[in-house]
Specification:
globular; 3 helices; Porin; 279 residues; 14-stranded antiparallel beta barrel; 10% helix
């Protein structure tokens, strides 16, 4: 047999294993929240405010008042072929907050990309709403094919009582298709969460997620403890898949650093790290 044949077989086997083991493609429905802070808190995200709300609940960026840029790298299951890279830029204006985000998953033989343009705004003192237009692309290497489509996501957060935030997030409610050939659809996802600030140091959050591709409903819970608003310790649990997580972070003058690791019930740890720059 020629070496080229063995290389082709190896690529096919590796791509098949990626689909079976990671279950991460857009069409598979396993779309996780982005950001090391969220990851350290059991992947809770719907009711959390902050930079990576641009990926997890766009309403969360409505209170950002500084130009910000962030990157996040997740080494899923400690395999570079399943790594997930994210970057985003946020710009506040008088009429609201604009944001641009980019996600990349995979490697040269299989690649997923997501590009998002977000807008968020406060309505009164207790309601924030955000929406994002998304472009999705899936490509197989060696010119085996490419699939793409557009959809949207929308989020709401409300501080209806002191120290309690309610978050609702919807991803792809219209269930757009990646291809008509196999009727592959992007999943529709609904998340509902609560975040309670017990004091200036401790935040407890929980959420439920319903995914059109995955059953049953997923439950998550996480907490964050701050030490002098400079150092943060985090932990979280979930009802299945990533059963527990932990992480920490620290703030410098114009830089925030977050690290976390999630433990999958059968596939092991997924470490990640994120940087956020405020100008």
């Amino acid at each position: 047999m020629k070496p080229g044949f063995y290389n082709l077989v190896n690529k096919i086997i590796l791509i098949s294993l990626l689909f079976l083991l990671t279950n991460k493609s857009f069409a598979s429905g396993d779309i996780f929240p982005i950001g090391s802070r969220s990851a350290g808190m059991g992947r809770c995200s719907a009711a959390l405010k902050g930079f990576w709300g641009i990926q997890n609940n766009q309403a969360a960026i409505s209170s950002i008042d500084k130009y910000s840029f962030g990157i996040n790298y997740e080494n899923r299951f400690t395999l570079k072929e399943t790594s997930y890279k994210s970057a985003a830029f946020i710009a506040p204006f008088k009429i609201g907050v604009l944001g641009f985000s980019y996600n990349h998953y995979g490697y040269k033989a299989y690649r997923e990309q997501k590009i998002g343009l977000a807008y968020a705004r406060k309505f009164g003192k207790i309601i924030s709403i955000g929406i994002q237009l998304d472009y999705f692309s899936v490509k197989l290497g060696e010119d085996y094919g490419k699939k793409n489509n557009v959809s949207f996501e929308i989020g709401l957060q409300s501080d209806i009582v002191d120290n309690l935030c309610i978050g609702i997030y919807v991803f792809n409610p219209i269930r757009v298709k990646l291809t008509d050939t196999y009727n592959e659809k992007l999943p529709a996802i609904l998340r509902f969460g609560l975040a309670y600030s017990m004091n200036d140091n401790l935040i407890i959050t929980t959420e439920v997620e319903k995914n059109s591709y995955l059953n049953p409903i997923l439950f998550r819970c996480g907490l964050e403890y701050a030490i002098k608003s400079k150092f943060f310790i985090r932990g979280g649990i979930a009802s299945r898949y990533e059963i527990f997580s932990f992480g920490f972070g620290f703030n410098l003058k114009h830089l925030k650093v977050d690290m976390a690791a999630c433990m999958h019930e059968s596939l092991g740890f997924s470490p990640q790290m994120g940087l956020i720059f405020n100008f």
